[in-house]
Amino acid sequence: xxxLVLSDSxxxxxxxxxxxxxxxxxxxxxxxxxxKYKDAQKFADKLNIDTVYQxxxxxxxxxxxxxxxxxxxxxxKKLLITHGHIHNVKENLQRLLRYAKEKNADVxxxxxxxxxxxxxxxxxxxxxxxxxxxxxxxxxSFGILEISDDKIISSIESIKN
Length: 161
What we know:
Blueprint: E1 2-6, H1 15-22, E2 29-32, H2 39-47, E3 51-54, E4 69-74, E5 77-82, H3 94-102, E6 107-109, E7 117-121, E8 124-128, E9 140-147, E10 152-159
Parallel strand pairs: 1-2, 2-3, 5-6, 6-8
Antiparallel strand pairs: 1-9, 4-5, 7-8, 9-10
């Protein structure tokens, strides 16, 4: 199962981004970690991805009554999806780590920091695809997860814009 992970697109979807994302092949699922919630379906439409999971972020003022954290199981792996602002991820990951442990998550997908991360902490993959348009670590980016029954391959890919 190939999963495209995006975050912090802030309403900017460029044809150049779509082309670069397509260079990595076809995707089964798109996950958007917030800021802007409605961008998820726009990306999915341009990339011909039918399955979309998304959460609102702190800048999604026009989205109401949507869960701030959702859980999905893909190939027996439990994924926790959040923007991260409610867990203060800009400060540190301790609150999010505690929450992930409580929920027995295998993977935590989050955004908010505009900085990519692909790191295992206490046997949990913490994966932030960064921002597709306004990076704070010097490179616009997106993430790819390849999930099988026995493993997860994760990568962060740069967008040149």
